[in-house]
Amino acid sequence: MLIKKASDIKSSEVTARELYLNRRQFILAASATALSATALFNGIDSPFSPSPAMAGAKLNNVRKGPFGTTEKQNSFKDITSYNNFYELGTDKGDPAENAKYLTTRPWTVSVEGEVKKAKTYDIDELIKIAPLEERIYRLRCVEAWSMVIPWVGFPLNSLVKLAEPTGNAKYIQFITLQDPKRMPGQRYAALQWPYVEGLRMDEAMHPLTILAVGLYGEVLPAQNGAPIRLVVPWKYGFKSIKSIVKVRFVEKQPPASWNIMQPQEYGFYSNVNPEVDHPRWSQATERRIGEFFRRKTLMFNGYGEQVASLYSGMDLKKYY
Ligand code: MTE
After folding, report:
1. Which residues of 69-102 are buried (b: 16+ CB within 10 A; e: fewer)?
2. Any alpha helices (H) in 151-215, and if so which ranges?
3. Staple 166 to which of 114, 154, 173, 254, CB 3.0 to 4.6 Å?
4. What pLDDT sits at residue 55?
5. Residue of 21, 84, 142 with the most ligand 1 atoms within 8 Å of its CB, for mutation
6. Ligand 1, from 91, 192, 240, 266: best to mutate by most atoms within 8 Å of Cβ?
7. Which burial class, exposed, middle or buried, applies to 45 when counting CB atoms under 10 A from its CB (0-12, 13-18, 19+)?
């Protein structure tokens, strides 16, 4: 299964993006970037005018939520200008630059599949189903960098309870918007679109798992996954799917974008695990954005006390 150990590759030989993409995909993405994400996307006229009233608007009645870390939070600038959101471009700065295309009203989220109460929610109704909480979580990206982010959101389990899953619902699949006008990166095959992700039902019900609609007390900027994105803090960042339009309850383990792309590199579970290297690099340490020295990566990203029991008896090397 292992392709090349991280120890075989000098860090100077790879860039963060090369780490992420295999050579063929890298060339494909590079050719798109060569035209320059900005020049490329400039050719697209958004049918909607940007809605500045959204991103940056203050969220009211946000209470302090549980599980918050006291570690130093990354700055608003770090969190909103160093992003992975391939629908808005493959460079870290692209999503902020192309955020203007991703208009988030009108927006609906369809809750469907193995549930008694299937429903299409208007986003403004959805964000009121549970009190908003601030959750200060570590986010550990599979590329071995991390941040501390003060999200605003509500537990996913409040939506699951409203949907009343049937006995057949064993997993939840999440699906991102597909609209190349609002997501210009979807004009290129960097990934298979739309972006999809999934959780096992007990992971979805876990009180740490939230749907985030804001950060730093404000409406979520588009580049961070507006208007609503998943946050699963004990898993690598790619599980935290952005700009969700469908939440589908299913019986079988659903497909997940990075797993489809590179199954030997990205598993379904994707729990942060310093003991299981990515085939091409080590996961033992990470660079906290804004810090100079590397830190040790913590098992389950430091949330082991809360979530380790979900995986008792499972071989985490096999189920990576
Ligand atoms: N969701 C979608 N739809 N598209 C993406 O490219 N990137 C993932 C995840 N969610 C991604 C996504 C990855 S790799 C990471 S690390 C996190 O979003 C980054 O979230 P942030 O930009 O808010 O820090």
Report:
1. beeebbeeebbbebbbbbbbbbbbebbbbbbbbb
2. 156-163, 201-205
3. 114
4. 85
5. 84
6. 240
7. exposed
**H or E stretch covering 246:** strand 244-250
Cα–Cα distance for residue pair 273/140, rounded to 1 Å: 10
Share of the chain above pLDDT 70, in %: 83
Low-confidence ranges of the chain (pLDDT < 50): 1-53
Question: If we measure between CA atoms, which residue out of 251, 243, 240 comes closest to residue 220?
Answer: 243
Pocket of ligand 1 (CB under 6 A): 83-87, 139, 141, 176, 195, 224-225, 237-238, 240-243
Predicted pLDDT at 27: 38
CA 171 to each of CA 60, 203, 228: distance values in angstroms, whole numbers, following the listed order? 32, 9, 19
The pLDDT assigned to 100 comes to 96
Per-residue model confidence (pLDDT) at position 15: 40
Report the nearest-CA residue for atom 8 of ligand 1: 238
C-alpha 211/C-alpha 231 separation (Å) is: 6
